[in-house]
Amino acid sequence: MFQNQITRAKKVYAEYPPQFWVVVGASFVDHLGGALLYPFFALYVTRHFDVGMTEVGILFAIFSVSEFFGSIFGGALTDLIGRKKVIIIGLIVSAFTSVGMGLVDRLELFYLMAVITGLFADMAGPARQAMITDLLPEEKRADGFGIMRVAMNLTVAIGPAIGGFIAARSYMMLFAADAISSTITAFFFYKLVAETLPKATTKEEKEARPSFADSFRGYAKVFKDNAFIIYMLLSMVITIVYMQMYGALPVFLRDIHQIPESGFGMLMSLNATMVVLFQFAITRKIGDRPPMLMLALGALIYAVGFVIYGFTGQYAIFMVAMAIITIGEMVVTPVAQALVAKFSPEEMRGRYMAVFGISWLIPGAIGPLLAGLVMDAGKPLWVWYASGILAAAASLGFVIFHQYFKQDESPAPRADLQLATAKKELT
Predict the structure, then answer these.
(1) What is the pLDDT of residue 179?
(2) Which pLDDT score, from 0 to 100, does residue 5 have?
């Protein structure tokens, strides 16, 4: 049996170019540092600066706004100067600012570090996604994104549990670990990864390259893609709900139920472990179903899981709720990623990826801030009741979207990770 698994793994490895696996491995190292640190931001800020959840919400809002501008800037640069340069610059700068966040003693300076970190860390996001798309043929792209997702969730399975124990001893070690992982990743990309943006070799090709201003003006075309924008807005709603796992949940567990950092870390590890073990099985089950209905199903599962948080004080039930939420995540995320990849034309790949990042960045600004205000107002349970209502509303929205485009929407052609058809199927 073990030998069969090894044989199967070798077969999967051989299906993809070596550089793709280098990108996956390097990204794993980078995300491992973030997985150690990111889940404990809210705990660090409230304890180190002696502030409430409103200030935490402001911090997440600052991160999201700066990440938005970083993503937009990075998306344009990605299509202009190449993927590799943008990734390396973003990694190096974010490494320095991560250390800076661990050293500053004033909340205002911490906010400043957060702005710089958000700008440069997320600048590399569209470039990394575009590079993966460049490296793989169309029939392998959804699978490639699925492999990257499993690798990233493996870091989350490892990181929070370790990070929880480190945080109980020294938060500065968490900031240092994040900086080291970013530096190592930058070195990997510099030494082992070739640029994937096609070079302009002829005079005509060089003249056809867009200027920096032209690259930015190309965003207007993305925002005129009505089906894409509607889909992105619906995605924002469920992301607002999902973000409460990182913003409100750790403080809720600690302050309302006296569950320590390590307890939250174990919840996040459960989330990631389930993704690693069961993601492919679930995507096979839903691969031949209409994508919008699968998104509706995932949002409804979110609603159930998050509402449970508001009705329990037992850690075992929190574990059950997290398992339910993770099932919803495994339904939603691969479908969402595959659809975005299909929406984007080759020459605008970085910019489409950047704009879709808005569906994460704006909720990252709004969700934790609203949750912080609700918790500081003495209504912590309403964070979870409201999350359930929003998730149910998003589910209904995806059903309506499906009905509106029902005549054109068809199931994905493969039952594996090819979860969406081409853009034309939705427009």
Answers:
(1) 92
(2) 60
As a whole number of Å, the end-to-end CA separation of the chain is 46
| Distance separating alpha carbons of residues 343 and 228, to the nearest angstrom | 7
pLDDT at residue number 308: 95
Distance between CA atoms of residues 325 and 344, nearest Å: 29
Instruction: Please choose, from the candidates 125, 130, 129, the residue with its C-alpha nearest in 3D space to the C-alpha of residue 74.
Output: 125
Six-digit token pair at 66?
């700066």
- The residues near 9 (Cβ < 8 Å, ≥ 6 apart) are none
Tell me, what's the pLDDT at 414? 34
- C-alpha span between 383 and 252 (Å, rounded): 10
The structure tokens listed for 117 are 């970190």
Give CA separation, 226 vs 198, 220, 272, 334, 401, in Å: 29, 12, 34, 22, 12
Whose CA is closest to 88, among 223, 192, 205?
192
Burial (0-12, 13-18, 19+ Cβ within 10 Å), 351: buried
Residue with structure tokens 């930015």? 216
- Alpha-carbon gap, residue 176 to 185, rounded angstroms: 14
Q: What is the pTM of this model?
A: 0.66
What tokens does 70 get?
């970083």
Per-residue buried b or exposed e for 377-406, using 16+ beta carbons within 10 Å of the residue's own CB:
eeebeebbbbbbebbbebbebbbebbeebe
What the chain holds in terms of domains, given with CATH numbers, is 18-195+203-425 (1.20.1250.20)
**Residues 402, 292: contact at Cβ < 8 Å?**
yes
Radius of gyration of the chain measured on its C-alpha atoms: 21
pLDDT beneath 70: ranges in the chain: 1-5, 8-9, 138-139, 142-143, 198-216, 218, 284, 287, 337-338, 341, 344-347, 349-350, 365, 405-427
Residue 347 has what pLDDT?
A: 64
Provide the pLDDT for residue 300: 96
Place of tokens 């080291």: 180
